[in-house]
Amino acid sequence: MKIVVAPDSYKGSLTAAEVGLTIREALEMEIPGVRVEVIPMADGGEGTLDALLFATSGEKLEATATGPLGEEVRTYYGVLGDGETAVIEMAQVAGLPMVPEGKRNPMRTTTYGVGELIAAALEKGIRSFIVGLGGSATNDGGLGMLQALGAVFLDQEGNDVKPTGEGLQKIVKVDFRDLHPALKSCRFRIASDVENPLCGTNGASFVFGPQKGATEAQVRQLDKGLQRYASLVEAHLKVQLQDIPGAGAAGGLGFGFLALGGEIIPGAQVVAEATNLEDQIRTSDWVITGEGQSDFQTLYGKAPFFVAGLAKKHGVGTILISGGLGKGHEQLLEHFVSCHSIANAPMPLEQAIANAQPLLFSCARNIARLLYKASESN
């Protein structure tokens, strides 16, 4: 029997890899001769880099880069096991948790460090990139990233503008001629489930600016600045990008990558492609997936729903094991053979989180016994 285990993380308690390894241990305990392939999943946010490195036996590389407030930070990026693809989580260099609450102001934050990490990978000969856009502290439209890669943005006096949301307001000239020459031969796959355009009431500033610390006045100012910036970039490149779904992701960093020729893809799809998940599922007998909390929202592009879709395509049944089952979880039974919560008794959330691993192991072990008994009957 072959079983593919492809879970998302149980946020706050277990990484996707830890979830997968715990389930594998339970399956191997109860099913003689079982072959278990653990492929951790992620949606482009926190955990994407670690999931990809685990699944491909990749390498994590430490680096120094510019943080969200312009300070020097120690961070990292990854290189997949193929040695040819770099993975960057923008949250590791320009993430909201890196900014103290009292200093959160997207007028002053920057994506410059993202560009520095790309440049570092370019110097190592990397030309293929996967970038996760979740958890940003920024609203600069990718201005900082593009500046770090050689793009020029000048104000009325001919000076470089600041690589921040505030700098957007002052741009009068754009020039991409000095972009890093290697970028012409690069492929950027951008992992993001955000479909917002860059500007307007559904854009980056209005929808996400407030949670990053922007006041109502700053939201309007940032949106106006993004419109100005985008119009100049589009005129310079002779393309239309700002209304493409996902251009507003990560404070407009999605737009910045579109300007580099990148493609925005649902996070789970990016991870699945990079790990050859579909090929593994095609030859499996069962698939097991899960996440911290499953409810009706799982059906809106979450990683377990994506995994179940791939399995259904190949006639393979999927079992869902999650930390908890919430509102509307009954709808999930149309896509999963069965849905399970690891909680085995009434308990506070804090207790469930603290004991997630043994609870998951116990739940997975019971499911393994059922699968083995069913296989004996066939």
Number of strands: 15
Q: How would the global form be characterised?
A: elongated
Specify the CATH homologous superfamily of the largest domain: Glycerate kinase, domain 2
Number of domains: 2
Task: Report the radius of gyration as a whole number of Å.
Answer: 22 Å
Q: Note the beta-strand portion.
A: 15-25%
CATH class of the largest domain: Alpha Beta
- Provide the low-confidence segments as ranges: none
Strand order of the largest sheet: 3-4-5-6-9-10
Question: Structural class of the secondary elements?
Answer: alpha/beta
Helix and strand element order: EHEHEEEHHEHEEEHHHEHHEEHEEEHH
- CATH 2nd-level architecture of the largest domain: Alpha-Beta Complex
Mean pLDDT: 95
GO molecular function: kinase activity
Protein name: Glycerate kinase
Keywords: Kinase, Transferase
Pfam family, one: Gly_kinase
